[in-house]
DNA sequence: GTGTTCGGTGAACGGCTGTGCACAAACGTA
DNA sequence: TACGTTTGTGCACAGCCGTTCACCGAACAC
């Protein structure tokens, strides 16, 4: 069976992907490249809505980004490399969350409420990134899993520093603080996952997260290592 | 390009897949069917070691099970149906864990230690099932995610019943118990995931899980709803 | 002993996959 | 203005994908 030649336009016909409005200045080559690079990342992120990263195809992502599969290689060596960039981007967004959490001056005793609120809001505002992390945290591709695990671990370490500044908790020894921080992170991850599955239940989820964090703090203040 | 005919054996040549030893009685048709069905399930479970379910192919699973892709349909309508059976099987194994937990008569005050031990042992002994659940809990295929969520929820409900039988916790109201049970489940899931990633760190992981459960119990005994 | 049921087979299909290649047009620079 | 670099193009290839089909032989029911 010979593949019949399809009627096509001449090769290299239209290079201009994005219509620039008439009065805007034409984009530089760098800017155009960055633009399609972002288009690829966004396309991949969008596809992750209903399939896992490992089940995604280079061709589909390229098509969704508006370029041919061959042009994909002008930006990434492979889908895996794109995935690693996605991990970085996602956690950049998470670090932003932490900064917000630290700067937001909480009423004393109200820290938990504001922490939960910040977390919930941030997840809702970065659904695609969080979905990606949630999917690939236990997903099929080893390098992504490793990258995500590393980032979460570093997040947990920063949290230890934060906890140390609190009146009662600050007196605990480092292993205990590690253990408690990891418990907090576990709750936060679970909250994010629940929120992704049921965004409309935001209220309940936030309330439950607050209570669970309070339980932990309550337990932690009673904690003394043997 | 015409596909060239490959040299092959006659159709329907060898129907006997499994070599039966000489003195064993020949297997009945039902037994043979059940056997290849299990081979398919095991093959799928094994493939999940390094790819997600959505990235798995019917052909590969069939080949790994020792049958042709066509024969797959004698057992399942689709890969998705196979996946749902896998969910059921995995949670059957989990319910077994709960039964073990209840029957194991714990020294009073030692419940947490034995609970953690049972969990850790069970995960180690059913790695493939737990890996599957961990992967697909946030994975790409909606029906699997839904099935897993349902089972975990029911697990959490049973745990509420257990908690109610404890001296101090039993006095808490139902919403509080729900919240605390879900916190326990969250910790258990996180423990299982950590264990899958680093089976050799079993000791540390178990110790940390015990401590985190103690924190929760400590906090829960101080808990009183507004 | 005879006919039926059923778990298997291999060939074939149309479609999608990643990747290599040669080429073109726009951009940037001398 | 001329020239090289860069970012895109289309075509081609070989390989895997799910699924349909007709067929086969062992196991079963009578």
**What is the CATH topology of the largest domain in chain A?**
Tetracycline Repressor, domain 2
Oligomeric form of this entry? homodimer
Helix content of chain A: 55-70%
CATH domain class of the largest domain in chain A: Mainly Alpha
Number of DSSP helical runs of chain A: 9
| Low-pLDDT ranges of chain A | 1-23
For the largest interface, the chains and their residue counts are:
A-B, 41 and 41 residues
Helix vs. strand class of chain A = mainly alpha
Q: Supply Rg of chain A.
A: 22 Å
Would you identify the CATH architecture of the largest domain in chain A? Orthogonal Bundle
Quick one: biggest sheet of chain A? none
- The share of residues in extended strands of chain A comes to under 5%
According to CATH, the homologous superfamily of the largest domain in chain A is Tetracycline Repressor, domain 2
Number of separate strands of chain A: 0
Q: How would you sum up the global shape of chain A?
A: elongated
Order of helices and strands of chain A: HHHHHHHHH
Q: What's the number of structural domains of chain A?
A: 2
Mean pLDDT of chain A: 88
Alpha-carbon distance between the two ends of chain A:
77 Å
């Amino acid at each position: 069976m010979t593949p019949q030649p399809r009627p096509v336009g001449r090769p290299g016909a239209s290079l201009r992907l994005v219509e620039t409005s008439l009065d805007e200045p034409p984009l530089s080559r760098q800017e155009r490249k960055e633009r399609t690079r972002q288009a690829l990342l966004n396309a991949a992120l969008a596809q992750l809505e209903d399939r896992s990263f490992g089940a995604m195809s280079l061709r589909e992502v390229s098509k969704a980004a508006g370029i041919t599969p061959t042009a994909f290689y002008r930006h990434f060596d492979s889908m895996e490399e794109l995935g690693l960039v996605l991990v970085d981007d996602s956690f950049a967004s998470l670090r932003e969350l932490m900064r917000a959490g630290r700067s937001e001056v909480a009423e004393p005793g109200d820290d938990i409420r504001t922490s939960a609120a910040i977390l919930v809001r941030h997840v809702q505002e970065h659904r695609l990134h969080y979905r990606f992390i949630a999917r690939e945290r236990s997903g099929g591709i080893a390098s992504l899993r490793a990258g995500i695990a590393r980032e979460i671990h570093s997040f947990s370490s920063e949290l230890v520093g934060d906890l140390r500044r609190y009146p009662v908790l600050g007196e605990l020894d480092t292993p205990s603080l590690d253990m408690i921080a990891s418990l907090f992170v576990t709750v936060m991850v679970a909250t994010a996952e629940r929120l992704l599955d049921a965004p409309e239940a935001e209220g309940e989820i936030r309330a439950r997260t607050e209570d669970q964090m309070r339980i932990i703090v309550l337990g932690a203040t009673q904690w003394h290592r043997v």
